[in-house]
Design goal:
By secondary structure, the chain is α+β, with helices and mostly antiparallel strands. The protein has six helices and five strands.
Length: 159
Amino acid sequence: MIVEKSVGELIKIIELDETIDFSLPSLEGYCYSGSSVWYFTKFFDEYVAKIIRTANIEKPVGLIAAFDNSVIYGNKQNTKLPLKVKCFKGINGTVIQIEDSGEGFDFKETQRGFENEEKYYQNGGKGWKRFNRLDVLVSFEGKGNIINLLYLNPKSSSN
């Protein structure tokens, strides 16, 4: 589900314990193909798997889609550009923040169009639909080039 919350607001929800920086100065050497989310993670697997294990994420579909969008549309598949990734672990869950080097997009207008069932999207709109249907909370910041994903621990989300 897409929400309007800053990373600071999401961090308050999880009661922060630890911050881990997974940023990459570039994606060179990761053999990025850009053909699909799953093909992308095949080559990016070790890096993404480390984040998934560290964050204890059971359903990483949103995280994988966020990486895919950041690299394909944000960094435009330029492997020389950096990808900033932070993992905020807390008592109640984990927040993953991904920042690409792209121009961003008007996420508020995109959400408005989605809610009104307008042709709001670029590149098919599958990612936006996916983010709106996930159990994870998703928010965007900055100029639309920063995505935050909040994964609540099962015990926390049932309270």
